[in-house]
Design goal:
This protein is an alpha/beta fold. It contains 9 helices and 8 strands. Strand 1, helix 1 and strand 2 form a beta-alpha-beta unit. Helix 1 crosses helix 8, helix 5 crosses helix 9 and helix 6 crosses helix 9.
Length: 307
């Protein structure tokens, strides 16, 4: 394959919703000359590629088959990437009752999909010096809780490595009813701390956590119980509490392209909002900027990664 003068990006969960829209928006920027669509299902990825080529007029999309909940699949997908990436967008995620089961690696599916697979992917690239510029992790306002959606925010007793470990392996909910919404927020919280940890370790690259906000037109609500699904798909948009797919995706694109978004910072909507201008979440959740807590998150995550 010919050498590329332009930039290369990889997006996980790129066959639908926010991931596909991020791919479309990046492809409209002439500096990008190759975009990898990392997806679990090859047929869906092929269909997404055809649609993206039609809507952008560019044939720059390549498919990487990757299930981020399966670390062997992540490693195989990473090996299939040719050369280096300028940008990695870690968009794949899951929420819902089915996400509380454990994977073969002993972690909840919600944590494996949202965080652990991305850790293996990104750190593999870093170990091989194959990430040139920026990594963007899709965060969520669930990190602080979403009262309007009846989602409690994480409440930590110690922010210790052991406490974070109980979240990762699901034992946090031992003896009590599992709250998949809370588990999702906990996973995104730990993921944001890990990104901030990487930002400290690699000062010459950017590691940015960005929430797409409350976005319509995604599959995120598809696996939720019916009342929550109706609320997310119909009630929230009708009340003006969400924004459109292109707006949510642009937040992640800005994470890639806007150098004023600082490394190690988690950007999301302002307090008590689900859309609108993004702000540094540490402004009202100062624990996110605590280096010790970032270290503990990194240590807990790596208890579940074996070479």
């Amino acid at each position: 394959m010919r050498a590329l003068a332009g930039k290369t990006a990889l997006i996980t969960g790129a066959n639908a919703g926010i991931g596909k829209e991020v791919a479309r928006q990046l492809a409209l920027r002439p500096e990008f000359e190759r975009i990898y669509l990392a997806c679990r299902n090859k047929d869906r990825a092929t269909a997404a590629r055809a649609e993206l080529e039609a809507t952008t007029g560019r044939s720059i999309f390549e498919i990487i088959v990757m299930d981020v909940a399966d670390l062997a699949s992540v490693r195989a997908g990473g090996a299939a990437i040719e050369g280096s990436l300028d940008a990695l967008v870690m968009n794949a995620g899951v929420i819902g009752p089915q996400s509380m089961g454990l994977t073969a690696d002993g972690v909840t599916t919600v944590f494996a999909t949202n965080v652990l697979g991305h850790v293996v992917l990104l750190e593999g690239l870093l170990a091989e010096d194959r990430l040139r510029e920026v990594a963007v992790f899709a965060g969520s306002e669930a990190v602080r809780g979403v009262p309007k959606l009846r989602m409690k925010g994480p409440s930590w007793a110690s922010h210790s490595t052991d406490e974070f470990t109980t979240v990762i392996n699901g034992s946090y909910f031992a003896g009590k009813k599992a709250d998949f919404n809370l588990a999702f927020g906990q996973a995104k919280y730990i993921g944001a701390l890990w990104m901030a940890y990487l930002g400290r370790q690699h000062p010459h690259r950017r590691f940015v956590t960005v929430s797409p906000g409350n976005t319509t037109g995604t599959r995120a609500a598809s696996d939720l119980p019916l009342p929550m699904r109706i609320g997310a798909k119909y009630v929230m948009p009708a009340l003006g509490l969400s924004h459109t797919l292109d707006v949510g995706a642009k937040r992640l694109v800005d994470g890639v392209t806007d150098p004023t978004l600082s490394s190690g910072v988690f950007y999301a909507s302002a307090a008590n909002t689900l859309k609108g201008p993004m702000v540094n979440q540490a402004d009202f959740l100062p624990d996110l900027a605590n280096p010790a807590y970032q270290d503990h998150a990194n240590e807990a995550i790596h208890r579940f990664i074996t070479v």
